[in-house]
Amino acid sequence: EVPECNTNGTCSCSTGSFGTSKEVFFCSASSFLDIDECELGIHNCSQKCHNTKGSYRCTCHSEYFKLASDQRSCKRLDSEEPWLFFAYGQSIWNMSMNGEEIYLQKSGLQKVAMIDLYIKEKKLYYADVQPNILEVTSLDGIYSRQLQTFEVDGLEGIAVDWIGKNLYSLRRTDLFVQTLDGLFRKILYRKIFRLPRALVVYPQKGKLYASDWSSSAFIACLNMDGTKWQKIITAGIIWPNALTIDIFSERIFWADAFLDTIQSADLDGKRRRTVVEGSNSVPHVFSLAVFDDHLYWTDWTYRGVLKANKLNGQNFTILERTTFSPFSINLLFMNFLDKKNACDAAGCSQLCLISGGKKVKCECGDGYFLEKDGHSCKSKCSDKEIVCDGSESKCVSKMYRCDGIMQCKDQSDEQNCTLRICPPGHFQCQTTKDCKMPSAICDGKRQCVDGSDERYCQ
């Protein structure tokens, strides 16, 4: 028997239990039922929660953390300090986690909105949508290279897969994947979105998450090879404006810029909980990041970078104010790297895509097909043709390359050309630069000294 209830008729039960007795003034121990604090989301574990009879216990990822003395927090085993990176229109900045130090990372841009980091090689990927450029630069500023100069306008999210060494991107209604060097690109889905907004990958699990804020807003989950597409959040969501994943608690976080909330859920969309809410705290979140016990985000109304506790929204702090609206935010931390992965041993000649868990498979960029060995890729075009980059995968005769007329929508047939002196539409001999009429090409008679006018004929 348990102690008698208060004389006013209200009963209380021990933590982790609740009474089911219908008696007014007392309840027996047999009437107590254990509740699962982990399932109900009423725990305060930093990472993992495990239900016990009448209570719960917290655990941490043992490779990187140890359980703190408060028995709920996870303390990192290393002392390395991460850094925040955020896009700011014409520039990219990096900042200490407490906001006390801030440095200019990259300037001279026009409208950079999306960024992500390839931590292993200390590279920063960003989309400058106004000049239609996707670029990569080393964090020390020594190395910089354009990866793509087409179909960058309309990009709504980029995400680096540090295991498969790929870059995923959302553009208008489509989902793309390409190698980090930009050489091979594949469309995973066409016309599957209406108003896509945010993108995040979880390579250790082989999962990709994307949001859409159309009239039927949703958050979707799929394998990183494009299989098993599923909408996991469809209710109570209007403008899912930001996504991030806490890989240690294995929860996804998102911000709704219409509902003024930051929420979280398990990776399958279950066990939702609201972390921060209200127009005074999160009036218009654009991008999210998570590290240790805190969420970090950019907000257009505050015009700044902010943070709060990831479990309850407490310790709300404005880290940095900006003159204009900030965009994408991400963080750099070197120690959370997978030392080995299946793609290293897969032997894929172009794309290595994670198909869920630790399984991988080789794929080819658009314009190529996978050969029978399951690793090698061969062009769908003949050896006398080139394949257009971008989304059309069109084969164009090499004789039309650098002729001054765009055959490819992405202009790839007119890129990296030598100096051209002939009028558009005329053939220019490769060595002598002589100009020949189109009617003289592939007529069975050599017009150019080097024979280049007859070289790529069918």
TrEMBL record:
Alphabetical keyword list: Disulfide bond, EGF-like domain, Endocytosis, Glycoprotein, Membrane, Receptor, Repeat, Signal, Transmembrane, Transmembrane helix
Disulfides per UniProt: 402-417, 442-457
SMART domains attached to this UniProt entry: EGF, EGF_CA, LDLa, LY
A cellular component annotation (GO) from this entry: plasma membrane
Domain EGF-like calcium-binding: 34-75
An MF annotation (GO) of this entry: Wnt-protein binding
Listed name of the protein: EGF-like domain-containing protein
Provenance organism: Dracunculus medinensis (Guinea worm)
